[in-house]
Amino acid sequence: MERLTDRGVIVTGASGIAAASARLFAAEGARIAVISRTASRCEELVESITAMGGTAFFVVADLVDTTAAQEAAATAIERLGRVDGLFNVAGGSGRRLGDGPLHTLTAEAFEATLRLNATSHVLMSAPVLRAMLAQEPDRDGQRGAVVNMGSVLATRPVPELFPTHAYATAKGAIAALTLSSAAYYASHGIRVNMVAPALTVSRMSERAASDEATLAFSRRKQPLAGGFVAAEEVAAAALYLLSAESRSVSGQTITVDGGWSIIEAT
């Protein structure tokens, strides 16, 4: 349908949901800028997009580094010429950083997890929003759209399997950021929304996918997906939120969880 024809879209991350989204957006006509810290994954993703006839380039940057994030955003904005959409996907589990139950958390582990998942959204969104504010409205009367990455864990905790309190806090912060910024930028023709997946097929979920208890839980708690949600399903929700089809939608969350939030099974 080419719902993003000629629109410039930035996607942060280069695997899992980010990769599925970049490919889908390109198939819908968007010009894609991929920003991620791993050059090999960026290159592979961009090659797959161009091989199918899409338009894409990448910028390598660690988005927890303020200077690197700002420089990457500036490069992407300049090369795209106009930025119509931003999908903030980059982030990840804080377990390797020391995330866990609150009574075990160090300040360093908490801050590192927050920076990885929430601060990175801020560092990328700020320059993109400045660019959107400076550009003329498009044919639909809008200057752009931002989609943030939440998580069902921020509102539907499962303490026996996912006692990662810093990660849940970061995703809760992103929800608040989404709502408050959506309210501020609505009068400027800029929309801000969020997708909140449950267990999804991605690099981040590899540990969970190898655990029998978590696999059994996913089949019970996510019956609509029959287990882990496909990354392409989350990408489809983000596509809707970036397209003109959602031109009257802002400050909202689409929960893509296979039933997690409505199923009581644990």
In the residues, how many domains can be counted? 1
- Spatial separation of the terminal alpha carbons: 39 Å
Q: H/E series, N to C?
A: EHEHEHEHEHEHHHE
**How do the strands of the widest beta sheet line up side by side?**
3-2-1-4-5-6-7
Helix/strand structural class: alpha/beta
Low-confidence stretches: none
Please give a structural write-up.
With 266 residues, the protein is α/β, with parallel strands linked by helices. The chain has a single domain, classed as 3-Layer(aba) Sandwich (Rossmann fold). Helices cover 43% and strands 14% of the residues. It contains eight helices and seven strands, in the order βαβαβαβαβαβαααβ. A seven-stranded parallel sheet has the order 3-2-1-4-5-6-7, sandwiched between helices. α1 packs across α8, α3 packs parallel to α4 and α4 runs parallel beside α5. The chain is globular and about 50 Å long. The model has no long low-confidence stretch (mean pLDDT 95).
Supply database-style keywords.
266 residues; Rossmann fold; alpha/beta
Topology:
Blueprint: E1 8-12, H1 16-27, E2 31-36, H2 39-51, E3 55-60, H3 66-80, E4 85-87, H4 107-134, E5 144-149, H5 165-185, E6 190-197, H6 206-209, H7 212-221, H8 231-242, E7 253-256
Parallel strand pairs: 1-2, 1-4, 2-3, 4-5, 5-6, 6-7
Helix pairs in contact: 1-8, 3-4, 4-5
